[in-house]
Design brief:
The complex is a heterodimer of chains A (700) and B (171). With 700 residues, chain A is an alpha+beta fold. Helix content of chain A is 47%, strand content 22%. Chain A has a six-stranded mixed sheet. A five-stranded mixed sheet of chain A has the order 6-8-9-11-10. In chain A, strands 20-12-13-22-21 form a five-stranded mixed sheet. In chain A, helix 2 runs antiparallel to helix 3, helix 3 packs antiparallel against helix 4 and helix 3 runs parallel beside helix 5. The longest helix of chain A is centred in the middle third of the chain and has 26 residues. Chain A is globular and about 105 Å long. With 171 residues, chain B is an alpha+beta fold. Chain B has one domain: CheA-289, Domain 4 (OB fold (Dihydrolipoamide Acetyltransferase, E2P)). In chain B, a hairpin with a 2-residue loop joins strand 9 and strand 10. The longest helix of chain B is centred in the first third of the chain and has 20 residues. The termini of chain B are far apart. Classes of the chains: A alpha+beta (700), B alpha+beta (171). Chains A and B meet through strand 21 and strand 22 of A and strand 4, strand 5, strand 7 and helix 4 of B.
Chain lengths: 700, 171
């Protein structure tokens, strides 16, 4: 039975990352006072399925590592171990470690053994150290214990091989074991990895040849396995066949076996503390990486993350309910279609009304179908939000701030691509709020605010857009400092008068994000230009409202999907182009003599009190003017690009419409000034203008 | 029985060999000259329909059309091969071809005067194109062959439809 397992790897990794996320969320919500056993179960299940999966796929490093976590969690689940903050922290960092390991394996790289060893050590210490279960048999072997405690587990195992200890396993599967897809050989192979093992098979039950059913399992086995193995490890292997067999696991030698259990339990206090300190130091370094102090590294990891998300975007998990709706819809369409073809077969004029009704029905079904197909691409925004509790937890600990994160509207749905691309900018904004927005508790009390700061992350739909708001009750933006900083940096003129909005906009200016400005002003501005550029690349925009001393609200408006945009179709000669509606400010009917020339070439148009540059679409796209429209008359479409206005001179406006964005690059190439194409109602192709690209192109 | 099997084997081999050396080409005309492309690259043949022009690209890239929902560029083969341009008539056809460019499969249409035939050729009968020096570029030409006493120029689809990189000339 040889199956190419690699085809399932993608699914496995996805499941693992999902499991890790579930574990992380669970761990963060875990309260050390009021223990929610269901929550521990969830975490345990996450670890368990990762372990099972990685074992099946032969990723033993992960299986081994998860096993230790699982053991720890198992004890917590059974109430044998107290849930303490230190255990939670160790488990959290182990989740991180697992994620790194999985990523390395996914990329086909080698797992960094040193890091894994480090976290593994921390886990084992937690596992062995704080266990306080008394044991009667402990005294006999306690001395050996103390000596071996500092040595790594591998060494321990070696030492105990001298004493013959192990397990006898009687394995008698029911006849239909093979039909459930289980393979005893594979399980034995796994057993062999645990230690030295021998097996004998009982063939007495095999019936006569003519009565033999090859699909039945008539064999039973007696296994002996020697080594430092816990009964759980063996049970784990037989976990899948539980209920399909008779299983009898007996310790090899009772007394020495007891000692095995002891070895895991007792350990002197002192080294534990030592190592725990080192462990704390490790956690510290890790958090450091997350903050701005070590920017390049943080950026690096962010880059890695985007790399993963791009890779992962090739597949999608869809709620089956959505698919069922779609199937229903297709059924309806098929019924309507057959009804129509029935009418068409023997058509008479008196059936016209019926035909029309049928067509209307078809139209409605197809529109519904389009809607539900688009819905498949939609995922809840919680995909992004779910990583923030962790981020806030880590950074607030690091900064010694008390911060509560509120998530609102996590189930708001948005296109998968948008979700993937928005996550990095959001991380940046949240980090800014944590670092510079929320004050330290002392300052907050002094300002008459509750000690615990609040950051609210809110998502909701408005129109065809999704709005994501980050609201903090921190110190807000200091308008005066922003302006003086901008003047000092030469970004604005000394005498210019800015509205609040314009002043806050300053933090998005590229040159504004200099290092020293972070510390003295309320701080923001680190890479905010990048944040804004990323959001604009998604066809959205970002706004800031701030009340000095009271807090800041950053709202991000994003289109629900990148596949459909609102556009305004314009005519230029015989061609039709689509201008994205988000970039249009207004449109004005003009005649040629309303344009002014600068140096005989560059044309400008006076929009109220402002002269704006004009791009003649005919010239830039080399379109022959057609004779229909009056020469010299046309429309100026005023578009905005990063706060700068610009006029597109076109022949005529044709009307707004929603267009489905198609890529030109699939079969063709990137074209300057064009972001994509769409298919119009009559089946012809219209190009969608890329306003920033167009302006750049015309400036050359 | 073994004997019989053996003969069957040789028969299969012979058949395979034939298949390997034989190839089918779709032939079409451009200004009285006959050209051929590998038929496995041909997706479909359509009549000419107006295209949406793409700004600031070479003349021979006529524009894009909607081919059942995907945007497909149309290239005028006359202009690409520097043959005199003629107005499109109702006989003008577009041959939709699949090309691979850096492991990326693209679908593109080429405008030709008319399609003529599907020709089966023995690969050994294809001769390489003579060197014309600088007078005519033979980079798109796979070889020449003779069908019914007429010369057919076999084109290399991938090289023919390789898009020139405009980004470099623009920046």
């Amino acid at each position: 039975m040889s199956i190419d397992m690699s085809q399932f790897h993608q699914v496995f990794f996805e499941e693992c990352f999902e499991g890790l996320e579930a574990m992380e969320t669970g761990l963060l919500n875990l309260d050390t006072v009021a223990i929610d056993s269901e929550l521990i179960n969830t975490i345990f299940r996450g670890a368990h399925s990762i372990k099972g999966g990685s074992g099946t796929f032969g990723f033993n490093v992960i299986a081994d590592f998860t096993h230790i976590m699982e053991t720890l969690l198992d004890e917590m689940r059974d109430g044998r171990r107290k849930v303490t903050q230190s255990v939670i922290d160790v488990l959290l960092s182990s989740v991180d470690c697992l994620r790194t390991m999985l990523t390395s394996i996914q990329e086909g790289e080698d797992v960094d053994g040193a890091i894994v060893g480090k976290y593994r050590g921390a886990l084992e210490i937690e596992l062995n150290g704080s266990e306080q279960k008394p044991s009667a048999a402990a005294s006999v072997n306690a001395e050996i214990e103390v000596e071996s405690s500092a040595v790594a587990t591998v060494a321990v195992a070696d030492e105990f091989e001298l004493i013959k200890q192990g397990w006898k396993i009687g394995f008698c599967p029911y006849l239909d074991l093979l039909k459930t897809g289980n393979d005893p050989v594979r399980m034995f192979r796994e057993l062999a990895e645990l230690g030295e093992y021998s097996v004998s098979v009982n063939i007495n039950d095999i019936p006569a040849f003519f009565e033999l059913d090859p699909e039945e399992c008539n064999l039973s086995w007696a296994l002996e396995i020697v080594g430092d193995i816990q009964v759980e490890e063996i049970k784990e292997i037989f976990n899948w066949v539980e209920g399909d067999c008779e299983l009898d696991i007996q310790p090899f030698d009772k007394q020495i076996a007891n000692h095995t259990a002891v070895e895991k339990i007792t350990e002197p206090e002192l080294p534990v503390q030592d190592i725990q300190q080192t462990k704390a130091a490790q956690v510290e370094t890790k958090i450091l990486v997350n903050t701005e102090d070590s920017r390049p590294e943080a950026q690096q990891s962010e880059n890695d993350l985007t790399k993963i998300s791009i890779k992962a975007s090739s597949s999608i998990r869809v709620d089956t309910a959505k698919i069922d709706t779609l199937i229903n819809m297709v059924g309806e369409v098929v019924i309507t279609q057959s009804m129509l073809s029935l009418i068409g077969e023997n058509f008479a004029m008196d059936q016209l009304a019926q035909l029309k009704r049928g067509l209307a029905q078809l139209e409605r079904h197809i529109r519904d179908m389009q809607q539900s197909v688009m819905n498949i691409r939609m995922v809840p925004i919680s995909f992004v939000f779910s990583r923030f509790p962790r981020l806030v937890h880590d950074i607030s600990t690091k900064l010694d701030k008390k911060i509560e994160l509120k998530l609102v509207g996590e189930s708001t749905e948005v296109d998968k691509v948008v979700v993937e691309l928005i996550s990095d900018p959001l991380v940046h904004l949240i980090r800014n709020s944590l670092d510079h927005g929320i004050e330290i508790p002392a300052d907050r009390i002094a300002a008459g605010k509750p000690e615990t700061g609040t950051i609210e992350l809110k998502a909701y739909h408005r129109g065809g857009h999704i709005v994501i708001e980050i609201i903090d009750d921190g110190r807000g933006l200091d308008r005066k400092k922003l302006i003086s900083k901008a003047i000092a940096n030469g970004l604005i003129d000394e005498n210019s008068i800015l509205t609040d909005k314009q002043a806050f906009e300053l933090i998005f200016m590229p040159g504004f994000s200099t290092a020293e400005s972070i510390t003295d002003i309320s701080g923001r501005g680190v890479g905010m230009d990048v944040v804004r550029r990323n959001i604009q690349a998604l066809g959205g925009n970002v706004e800031i409202i701030s009340d000095f001393g009271k807090g800041t609200t950053i709202s991000i408006h994003l289109p629900l999907t990148l596949a459909i945009i609102d556009g305004q179709s314009v005519a230029v000669g015989d061609e039709i182009y689509i201008v994205p509606l988000v970039s249009i400010k207004e449109s004005i009917n003009i005649t040629e003599n309303m344009l002014n020339k600068i140096a005989g070439k560059g044309e400008t148009f006076r929009l109220r009190d402002q002269y704006i540059p004009v791009i003649r679409m005919h010239e830039i796209f080399n379109v022959q003017p057609n004779n229909k429209s009056n020469p010299g008359e046309g429309v100026i479409v005023v578009v905005e690009r990063q706060g700068i206005l610009c006029g597109l001179f076109v022949d005529e406006l044709l009307g707004p419409q929603q267009v489905v964005v198609k890529s030109l690059e699939t079969n063709y190439r990137r074209v300057q000034g064009v972001s994509g194409a769409t298919i119009l109602g009559d089946g012809s192709v219209a190009l969608i203008l890329d306003i920033p690209g167009l302006v750049r192109f015309s400036n050359r | 029985m073994t004997q019989e099997l053996k003969t069957q084997d040789t028969y299969h081999n012979r058949n395979n060999k034939e298949r390997e050396s034989a190839a089918q080409y779709l032939s079409f005309t451009l200004d009285n000259e006959e050209y051929g492309v590998d038929i496995l690259r041909v997706q479909e043949i359509r009549s000419w329909e107006p295209v949406s022009r793409i700004p600031n690209v070479p003349r021979y890239e006529k524009g894009v059309v909607n081919l059942r929902g995907s945007i497909v560029p149309i290239i005028d083969l006359r202009e690409k091969l520097c043959i005199k341009f003629t107005e499109y008539t109702h006989l003008t056809v577009v041959v939709v071809l699949q090309t691979s460019d850096d492991n990326k499969i693209r679908t593109m249409g080429v405008v030709v005067d008319s399609v003529s035939d599907v020709i089966s050729l023995d690969k050994t009968k294809i001769q390489s194109a003579p060197d014309f020096g600088t007078k005519i570029s033979n980079e798109f030409i796979n070889g020449l062959t003779t069908v019914n006493e007429r010369m057919v120029i076999l084109l290399d689809v991938d090289k023919l439809l390789k898009l020139e990189d405009l980004e470099i000339s623009e920046s």
